């Protein structure tokens, strides 16, 4: 498109130069060219006045050819308009350069379009306010799943720890610049802005400005202009199915993540990892606009794993951000070994075992005491259990006491 404009301008220039040489007619350039900043963070107003020599000329129609330097493309853009004002987007961190020609056409030029040889020009330098080296770094915006926007920036090493950053934004739907609705805080300082719940246009430029203050003085201002549709990051794909088909085929299918992104605007990248015969893993990336993929495999014992991510393709946005990868899905599935019990499980098991043994011993003791009381014998079962080995004899008939003990028990007690 820009090439076409440049070719058109060249043809107009050649035509104008030839006609002016033949007719000998000259046209004065516009006057009083000014550039004003209405506070729209880079969207500037350009105004000029018709040349004084043409103020009373009513025979010819007057046009103006405005040319301004686009720092994004490093080229001159041009428009023709009958008006004496125009607004355009500029990077306020760089020089603003504009020039305007006068173009006449009508009876006063014998029906030939003539452009002034000279032009009104103006170059506006960027503002130099702010402590040098204190501008924020790495300003990045992410439009998550086309639902909410978050912009973040990094601190400059020369920036004081007590610095305070401010973010302002403007688009054509606002009369004046507005401040960030909710700041993101990191380590006690502002590190970004959350626009969740804030309506923002997707197809037009949004201007951002980050400035601030510090004990040393004001921070240098950073200006950014972007379309948020070019910064969409889709949601992670969660539903991925893998199954085998006839003829040793692997069929992988997935579902589009929920959100506001139409399915036809997504393209997909599938990462395929396969175990090789030498134990090495080979990786392959496959891009597709479909939501399924079929591959063949040679051997059943070789493991094949897949994961999927998505982004907006070029038919819906000039650029986009890849989503996060889905969880890997593999064939054959890896059987996970049961996890070894941790120290907490072992300790609990030991405590339970000790408690059971203690309960069993206590129950045995209680049972022995009850038996002893029921039979009313001096030697209870506890005495038998804990007697010295010399006092007990084992025979084929069972447990017996020595004879002298038996006799002593049957001998009558003497009178005291």
Task: Show the helix and strand layout.
Layout: H1 2-23, E1 31-36, E2 43-49, E3 61-70, E4 75-81, E5 85-89, E6 96-105, E7 114-115, E8 120-124, E9 137-144, E10 148-154, E11 164-170, E12 178-179, E13 183-186, E14 189-194, E15 206-214, E16 217-218, E17 222-226, E18 232-233, E19 240-245, E20 249-254, E21 266-275, E22 281-288, E23 292-296, E24 304-312, E25 329-331, H2 343-375, H3 381-385, E26 393-395, E27 398-400, H4 403-410
Parallel strand pairs: 9-18
Antiparallel strand pairs: 1-2, 2-5, 3-4, 3-6, 6-7, 6-8, 9-10, 10-14, 11-12, 11-15, 13-14, 15-16, 15-17, 19-20, 20-23, 21-22, 21-24, 24-25, 26-27
What fraction of the residues are assigned to beta strands by DSSP? 35-45%
- The rounded Rg comes to 45 Å
Structural class: alpha+beta
Instruction: Find the count of extended strands (DSSP E, 2+ residues).
Output: 27
Helix content: 10-25%
Please report the distance between the alpha carbons of the first and last residues. Answer: 135 Å
Number of helices: 4
Report the mean per-residue pLDDT as an integer.
81
Global outline: elongated
Low-confidence stretches: 16-22, 380-400, 403-416
Q: What characterizes the major β-sheet?
A: 5 strands, antiparallel
């Amino acid at each position: 498109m820009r090439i076409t404009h440049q070719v058109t301008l060249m043809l107009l220039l050649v035509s104008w130069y030839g006609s002016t040489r033949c007719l000998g007619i000259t046209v004065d350039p516009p006057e009083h060219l000014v550039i004003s900043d209405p506070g729209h963070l880079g969207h500037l107003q350009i105004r000029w006045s018709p040349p004084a020599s043409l103020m009373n000329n009513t025979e010819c129609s007057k046009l103006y050819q405005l040319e301004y330097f686009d720092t994004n493309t490093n080229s001159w853009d041009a428009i023709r308009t009958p008006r004496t004002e125009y607004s355009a987007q500029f990077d306020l961190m760089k020089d603003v350069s504009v020039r305007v020609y006068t173009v006449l056409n009508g009876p006063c030029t014998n029906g030939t379009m003539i452009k002034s040889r000279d032009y009104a020009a103006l170059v506006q330098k960027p503002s130099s306010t702010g402590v040098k080296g204190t501008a924020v770094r790495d300003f990045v915006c992410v439009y998550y799943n086309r639902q909410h926007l978050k912009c973040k920036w990094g601190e400059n090493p020369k920036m004081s720890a007590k610095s305070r950053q401010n973010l302002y934004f403007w688009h054509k739907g606002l009369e004046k610049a507005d401040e960030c609705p909710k700041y993101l805080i990191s380590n006690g300082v502002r590190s970004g802005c959350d626009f969740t719940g804030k309506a923002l246009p997707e197809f037009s430029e949004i201007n951002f400005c980050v400035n601030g203050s510090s004990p040393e003085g004001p921070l240098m201002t950073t200006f950014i202009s972007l379309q948020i549709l070019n910064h969409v990051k889709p949601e992670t794909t969660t539903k991925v199915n893998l199954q085998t088909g006839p003829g040793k085929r692997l069929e992988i299918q997935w579902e589009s993540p929920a959100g506001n992104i139409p399915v036809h605007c997504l393209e997909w990248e599938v990462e395929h990892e396969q175990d090789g015969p030498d134990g090495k893993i080979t990786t392959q990336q496959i891009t597709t606009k479909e939501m399924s993929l079929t591959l063949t495999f040679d051997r059943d014992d070789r493991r094949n794993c897949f994961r999927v991510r998505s982004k907006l393709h070029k038919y819906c946005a000039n650029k986009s951000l890849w989503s996060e990868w889905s969880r890997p899905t593999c064939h054959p599935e890896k059987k996970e070994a049961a996890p070894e019990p941790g120290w907490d499980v072992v300790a609990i098991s030991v405590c339970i075992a000790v408690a059971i043994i203690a309960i069993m011993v206590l129950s045995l003791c209680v049972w022995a005491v009850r038996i002893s009381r029921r039979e009313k014998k001096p030697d209870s079962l506890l005495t038998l259990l804990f007697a010295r080995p010399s006092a007990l004899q084992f025979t084929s008939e069972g447990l017996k006491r020595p004879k002298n003990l038996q006799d002593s028990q049957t001998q009558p007690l003497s009178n005291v």
